[in-house]
Design a protein that fits this description.
- The protein is mainly beta.
- It starts with a strand and ends in a 5-residue tail after the last strand.
- The strands form three sheets. Strands 1, 2, 3, 5, 7, 8, 9 and 11 form an eight-stranded mixed sheet that branches.
- The model has no long low-confidence stretch (mean pLDDT about 95).
């Protein structure tokens, strides 16, 4: 799939924001079902499996202070965690700005969308079979800006 960047985030990056500024304090949502064709599109028939926040408490999650070699990583001191809201097979995620709506169509919200798998995905989990009421933890999350296309 490759990580998709919303029109709102692309415009923000070009106008005045950094990627970090745009998404720090946001939340990561994990879904089942077929991902929308674009991160700007509304969800359609997808089930929210887990919402990842700071220590599972609902507060926003953050990235490290600085990127290294074109890679911005999850803040190592933070625990990115959530309690699964439903059982299902995780297929994709959306990481949305603070206060963002992950399910609505939008060309102004700042968010990214990517695949979920056990290896070779944009977000790798130990298992894509999530169980309701279980704790889901994200130990590693990196966003890479390639040097060339």
């Amino acid at each position: 799939m490759g990580i998709q960047v919303s029109t709102g985030l692309r415009n923000g990056l070009l106008d005045s924001n950094s990627f970090k500024d745009a998404l720090d304090g946001g939340l990561l949502y994990i879904y089942s079902g077929t991902p929308p064709a674009s991160v700007n599109d509304a969800l359609s028939g997808n089930t929210l499996l887990s919402t990842i926040s700071l220590s599972g408490g609902g507060s926003g999650i953050n990235f490290e202070a600085n990127a290294v070699a074109g890679v911005l990583s999850k803040a190592a001191a933070e625990t990115w965690q959530g309690t699964n809201a439903a059982s299902g097979t995780a297929t994709f995620f959306r990481f949305c700005e603070a206060g963002g709506d992950p399910s609505a169509a939008s060309s102004t919200e700042q968010r990214i969308q990517g695949s979920v798998g056990v290896a070779g995905a944009d977000l790798n989990l130990s298992s894509v079979s999530l169980t309701a009421a279980a704790t889901q933890t994200i130990d590693f999350f990196n966003v890479t800006l390639p040097a060339a296309a």
